[in-house]
Task: structure prediction
Amino acid sequence: MSLSRRAFLASVGAGSAGVMLRPIISARGAEALLALGRPEPGDPPAWSVPPASLVRIDSNENPNGPGDRVFAAVRDSFGVANRYPRGEERAALDAIAAARGVKVENLMLGCGSTEILRVATAAFAGPGRALVQGSPTFEVMGRFAPTVNAPVRNVPVDAKLRLDLDAMASAAKGAGVVYLCNPNNPTATVLGAAAVRQFVEQVAAASPATVVLIDEAYHEYVDDPSYATAIPLALENPNVVVARTFSKVYGMAGLRLGYAIARPETLKRMRPWLLETNTNQPALAGATVTVADTGRIADEQRLNRSARAFTLDFFRNAGYATSDSQANFVMVDIRRDVKTFKAECLKQGVSLGRPFPPLNTHLRVSIGTMAEMQRAVEVIRGALA
Result:
């Protein structure tokens, strides 16, 4: 039976949006699945939809979703779902530019910030032009680098799980691109604005052609007063790119939209590597209405801060060392093999972060709702015992 557009729109009206749209848009657990690689025929168990009862604190998503304004915008966008996005892209760019205090010419949209990271790897790295990154850090650029025959230089984090900027600057000589995830995923540690600026200057002095990509996916969750966005650096320096996403505090992980901020001449080097039609109508509609919704973001920050403090207090009171979390996840040394521990907790209905070598005894715990974290810590408490 065919389904007309009118019938489809009616089926996803306000009454059914919570059932149909919210799980799809929030897409909780996606990063954990990404770590498994792309699904192949015969792989349904690993890629199946988890049961609703599972506490999914494994992928650093916003547990609350994007809010009613985004759901309304997404529903409205279905009326143009048969059209390639054109004017809608410009509307989203205008909204992002206004919210970030930049010009549209300083922006480039991506399919999540994942595409931005892959594009930067292809544009700036290659044979004889290495990728330099912390270890551990978010793996997208490191996984993609071999595709463009770029060597990867991994620099271990320091004893406090912070990116080692001096060591990374030393490794950057002759490199094509340096990846600076700030706050760093999975360690949740942050670098202050002065340290980042000094690092960019160090890299420029030692290797003038090297680009520094600063991933600010978790920007809105930072409380450290020394921190500030690197957007001003990206506007003044053609060798700096800032990546942002709508997947985290905005709760749109399932819609896939991110963006780069850089000088026009820098973005020009990246654009040839973009998928030509890399955005979609629902994502653009959602981004346009949410990017300047400061009240919504303040609520998300408050909820995350409270549940994060609860989680950190649990681990620290139990005698386990944690990093100074400045994100929507925490990193804890549970002093045992993470893979085995994760499997034990999964049996009890709690899905935790995957292992991040070489920190094989450090567990990454994403922050869910307070109710989810209360349930999770009881399972974790039992597994630790």
Notes: Residues 25 and 254 are 4 Å apart (CA to CA). The longest helix spans residues 294-317.
